[in-house]
Design brief:
The protein has helices at 8-21, 44-54, 79-89, 97-110, 119-130, 137-145; strands at residues 22-29, 32-41, 58-62, 71-76. α4 (97-110) runs antiparallel to α5. It is globular, with a radius of gyration of 16 Å. It has a single domain, classed as Endonuclease I-creI. By secondary structure, it is an alpha+beta fold. The protein has six helices and four strands.
């Protein structure tokens, strides 16, 4: 199946997986910025369904020690594939909609005639801030008000 053949219900399911189990980020490696789109889960059927529906990405098995189940990772690595994927699921995203919009713009710049634009650094900083772990100062204040 290809992205153009996916139904609205399937796109909504995929968006739910990305919102709940996935990650949209802009990372740096060897001084180069790139977008990462991935989802991981211990249920291989979920990951296989993502691959089957989108015909995108690569799947990796992460074996973990102790009493942990194996973890399956699904990655999309191509800027063109990421752009096409995010444009399709964007209307259905809730939690990660703002990150998706920034990643879309990032990919558009990377695929343009000026892939070294200063805007790439701005998108990198903004998405990194959204993906920070821990309770933020403003969140602590709102939690106290509840």
């Amino acid at each position: 199946m290809a992205l153009d053949d996916i139904t609205d219900v399937q796109l909504a399911w995929i968006a739910g997986i990305i919102d709940g189990e996935g990650c949209l980020s802009i990372a740096e490696k060897y001084g180069l910025l790139y977008v990462r789109v991935y989802a991981c889960n211990t249920d291989k059927l979920m990951i296989d369904t993502l691959v089957s529906l989108t015909a995108l990405g690569h799947v990796y098995l992460r074996k973990r020690g102790g009493n942990h189940k194996p973890l399956w990772d699904w990655f999309i690595t191509s800027n063109r594939d990421i752009l096409d994927f995010l444009v399709k699921v964007l209307p259905y995203l809730v939690v990660k909609k703002s990150r998706a919009k920034m990643c879309i713009e990032f990919c558009r710049i990377k695929l343009s005639d000026n892939p070294t634009s200063d805007k790439l650094e701005l998108y990198y900083a903004a998405v990194s801030h959204l993906n920070e772990r821990g309770v933020k100062k403003w969140q602590k204040t709102s939690l106290r008000l509840m």
